[in-house]
Amino acid sequence: MSASTPATDAATAAPVTSALGADELDELDTLLDDLRSRAEEIPQWEFCDGFLTALICTRRPIPAAEYLPMLLGDGAELDVAEGEPLPLLPAFKDAAQQARFLELWDLRWNEVTAQLDADVKSLDEDMAFQPEAMDMRGAIAALPEEERADMEGQEIPSFGQVWALGFMFAVENWPEDWAAPRDKEAAQWLDDAMDAIVALTEDDTGKPEVCMYTEDGPPSTSQARVETFGEAIWAVYDLRQLWKSMGPRVESIRKEATPGRNDACSCGSGKKYKKCCGANA
């Protein structure tokens, strides 16, 4: 998976069309519904989008053979050599369906990468990152009364909540890649950003004041939630820049202890170290 070239001047960039339009999003919803007929716990696309965004922000580039089974399979990493095509996951009906999902996934991946690497000053800019978050409460409130009645008693997620849960699902499954850096300032930067996203995983209990589903829809989301959503978006930018600036974690190389001069040589010759490999030490 290769990222598209990042935009460097959002102020002069041409208007951007979303990589996934309404038709593609409907296609993804239909595809994921079909996967649920063969596998349990296949998430919504909103959850997938949060998961995808976290992967783009993760310190180590995680290969598809590792993350795809975590999202749509049993979690076991696929045994595939680098550069080789992925084997078919059981949830997909055939190779063509899996290839189409990955094609749409790559479109969104490249779009998010370009947006997070763009120099934006406002979330109103064309190149600003926007999570594919759904206002389910607004969508249900806009339904006819008889259809709303059928959903009474069901727990409806808050605006952006499912997206944030998808993001945190990736964080929780690769904890070593999200471990706090030693630098105190960087560690605080990480904590503050994560707090902003975790806040979005919580329920919106404020007074409904705006509708994020349609401009003229009945109020479904609190103003505080809208502000929390904006803070979470900026937090994603911070996380992307933090890990890009630090680079992948470097594994320390453990140096084997040198034998004493009168100890048996570690090469297995049977001689003392001082008369074998340590003769010239």
From TrEMBL:
<dbReference type="Pfam" id="PF03695">
    <property type="entry name" value="UPF0149"/>
</dbReference>
<dbReference type="InterPro" id="IPR004027">
    <property type="entry name" value="SEC_C_motif"/>
</dbReference>
<protein>
    <recommendedName>
        <fullName>Zinc chelation protein SecC</fullName>
    </recommendedName>
</protein>
<dbReference type="InterPro" id="IPR011978">
    <property type="entry name" value="YgfB-like"/>
</dbReference>
<dbReference type="Pfam" id="PF02810">
    <property type="entry name" value="SEC-C"/>
</dbReference>
<dbReference type="InterPro" id="IPR036255">
    <property type="entry name" value="YgfB-like_sf"/>
</dbReference>
